[in-house]
Design brief:
By secondary structure, the chain is mostly helical. The protein has 11 helices and no strands.
Length: 294
């Protein structure tokens, strides 16, 4: 019988190994999307529905007030708002549902016994989420241009810092959601979508803070998205780059990201210490854990 020689794999530098693990997570989620095309609903159908809904509202108000009415600017506010809103929405949903995919497939325990670090898992999911974000925001922008002749690129490069701030804001929200799922299990999954419907009216997506009821305005002013969307509206009005609003939004977003990282790290420690990992393991492991507990 012929003996086979097995050679040890070449040494991979520590930094490169981390990037390879991140890339592997991103590819894993790409394969899931490829095998389940119905998951494209969030980046194809939903963006078009939002564009038609808010774009048609704006067109109706213009038709009631005439082409020179304030409703004319309202159309641009609504369409630019929904384009920028999908930056937050797609960034948050991609990371939240990416983590939930690991719990749905009961793969979390398997990942925790590999060299993969928690930060690398989130980074891989976020990397794949960037591809979904480009698709979703691209569909919204294309629908706005095709159906309502609104070209968001007319706002120029000044829109890039607004997009960057909203992207990081979406990731911060997603980390809070992931932390709640770690703590409370699958029952907290509804927050992945529900929390966005709370942020949307409070975040000044389509209107300034002053349009909200007086007792809600202080809460809205604390959200970094409020200042980012306000900066977007100033660009729509043709004004200069609103550095003041962008600075407030950037500072608030950095604070939110730091708080979200601290929160998810705290929840992860509880997740391990209290044995919540058994909720995300295979059915057999859950059964064994239950039997051991009795």
């Amino acid at each position: 019988m012929t003996a086979h020689r097995f050679e040890a794999p070449a040494h991979v530098p520590r930094g490169l190994a981390a990037w390879l693990r991140i890339w592997a997570v991103a590819r894993r989620h790409a394969y899931v999307l490829y095998r389940s095309p119905h998951r494209l609903f969030d980046v194809t159908v939903w963006p078009i529905v939002d564009t038609v809904l808010f774009g048609s509202l704006g067109v109706y108000f213009v038709s009631q007030g005439g082409p020179n009415s304030a409703g004319q600017a309202g159309v641009a506010y609504l369409l630019s708002g929904i384009v920028l809103w999908h930056v937050v929405y797609q960034a948050q949903i991609a990371v939240s549902t990416g983590f939930m995919e690991e719990t749905w497939s009961r793969n979390l325990l398997s990942l925790m016994v590999t060299p993969l670090r928690e930060l690398e898992l989130v980074a891989g999911i976020a990397l794949f989420g960037l591809a979904k974000l480009v698709m979703g925001v691209g569909v919204v922008a294309l629908a706005a241009f095709t159906l309502y002749a609104f070209d968001v690129t007319d706002l120029g490069l000044a829109l890039l810092p607004v997009i960057a701030i909203l992207l990081m804001g979406g990731w911060a929200i997603a980390l809070f959601v992931v932390g709640l799922i770690l703590r409370f299990g699958n029952g907290a999954e509804a927050l992945a979508w529900g929390i966005m419907f709370v942020i949307m009216p409070l975040g000044g997506v389509f209107y300034p803070v002053e349009a909200l009821p007086a007792f809600i305005q202080p809460i809205s002013a604390l959200l970094p998205t409020t200042h980012a969307f306000a900066a977007g509206r100033e660009l729509i009005d043709g004004g200069p780059v609103p550095w003041g609003e962008l600075a407030l939004a950037a500072i608030g977003t950095l604070v939110a990201v730091a708080a979200a990282l601290a929160f998810v790290a705290w929840m992860l420690r509880l997740f391990r210490r209290r044995g919540y990992v058994t909720r995300s393991s295979s059915p057999g492991c859950c059964g064994c854990s239950a039997a051991a507990g009795t």
